Amino acid sequence: MEAKKNIIVVFVFFFLLSGLCWAQETDSSEGAKQSSASETSQEKGFLDSLTEALGEAAKETLEEKVEDWKKDYRGRITAVKMVEEDAQHVTLEVSYKRVSRPDDVYISGEVLRRGSPSPDFVVDRLPLTKKRGVIRLNVYYVEPETQDVRVGRSDQIVVYLHPAGEPDKRFGEYYLTLVKKWGLEETKEASGEEAITLTDEEVTSGETEGEDLSLAPVTDVKTGTKEASSSFPTRQIGSVARLSIPSVKNYDFYTQAHRAKWRSSRGTLPFPGRDNDQRGFVRRIPQGFLSTGNKAVRLLETHPAWERAGWIEGEYPLMVLGPKVHFKAVAGFLKGVKASDGAIFKVLIKDQKGRKRLLISRFVPANRYVHLEADLSRYAGKAVSIILYVNSWRTSAQDWAVWVAPRLTTK
Asked: Which domain of life does the protein's organism represent (predicted)?
C-alpha cells in the first residue's frame, strides 16, 4: 500500500511538472526574439515557478489531490431480489456493475424499520473481486434478549457498497421493500439452568460410542450399482447391490459424532480434533458452561477453520427417517469467549443424489444461545444424511461454537 502511495505522488508530481514545462515552453517561444539575457531571466522564472510549485501550499494541495483520488470509489447495485426465506433468515441475490477498484470494495446491507436501522439483524459483509457480477447476501434475525413476543418486523433493506475498513462511507445504495415478520411467536426460550441442562427424558439413551440409537429394522435401498461401498452391510439381490440403511426414530448426533465425515474450508478433519488445530476441529465435551453462564451437558464443539468466513461441517451416515421426526439442539458458545463476533449455525439434509436442502440457518451472537428445531416429517421413509455446519461469520477469533445435545426425536 505504501509503494502504491509513492507511485501516485510521483505521478501527480510529474503531471504538475509537465504543466509548468508547457507554460514555460510557451513563454520561451514568444521570447525567442529577445536577447540571451532575457532567456536567462526566463530560465530563472521557470526555476522560481518550480520552487513555488514545490512550496508548502502546493505540497498540501498535492496531498489533498492524492487523497481525493484514493477516495474516488464508484459503482452501482442494479438489482436485488430475494431467493431464499424463512422465519429467521433471507438470502438476497445482488447484481452490481461498474465498480472501480473492486479489490478494495465490500458489499453489505442494513435492515430498516420505519426508516431507521434495526439492531435486531445482521447482514453479510462480503468482499468483491470483479467490477461486475452477482453475489448472494444473507440477512439474519437475532431475537432480542428482552422481549416476550419474539417477532421482529422490517419495512426495507438497503444494500450498499463501501471501501474496505470504512463501512460508513457508502456508495451505490439500493433500497428493497422487505415487509416481513421475523421469528416465531410460539418460540419460547426457557431461562435458567434447566433451559440447557437437559433431563434424562429429553436425551436419547445409549451413550456407548459404537451403539446406534433407537434404530428400527433396516430398510433396503437400491444403489443402482453392482457393488456398493458403505459402512452399512449390503445385500445382493440379483445383479444389484442394496444398502441396509437403518430406519431412525431417535438419533444422538453427540454420541454418533465419530461416524460423521468432518471437514472444513481447509480440508478433511480427524475426530476427535485438537483445540489448537487451525484447520478447525470437532470434539465432545461431556459437560461445561456456556458464555451465558448456563450449565450444559453433552456439548459438541465445532470450531470452524481459523480464517475469515471459515467453516466446518459434519455429514452423518445415511438413515431412513421415521414418521414425525424432529431435529432439536441448542446453539451457543463456550464460557470465556470474548473476541468472537458470533457464528452461523446451519442444519442441512442431503438425499442420495447429493441434493441438499437447508433446514435451519441461524446467526447466534457470542453472548447468547438459541434453541434450534426443524420438523423432518416430510422426509419420512426417505434415505437422507444430516449435516451440521458452522460458519465463522466475519472472523473466526474464539469461535467456540457448540451444539448442546443435538438429536432427532419423535413427537
From this structure: Bacteria
Model pLDDT for residues 46-91, shown as the tens digit of each residue: 445 555 555 666 656 655 554 554 457 889 999 999 998 888 888 9
How far is it, in rounded angstroms, from Cα 388 to Cα 404? 12
List the CATH number of the domain containing 389.
Answer: 2.60.120.200
Which one-letter amino acid corresponds to residue 234? T
- Total domain count for the chain? 3
Q: Which residues constitute the domain of residue 161?
A: 76-182
Euclidean distance between CA atoms 362 and 131, whole angstroms: 31
User: Do you find a cis peptide bond into 163, omega within 30 degrees of 0?
Assistant: no
Q: What is the DSSP string of 92-159?
A: EEEEEE--SSGGGEEEEEEEEETTEE-TTEEE--EE--SSSEEEEEEEEE---SS-SS--EEEEEEEE
Q: Position 138: which residue type?
A: N
The answer to whether residue 232 sits within a structural domain is no
| List of residues 6+ apart from 13 with CB closer than 8 A | 62
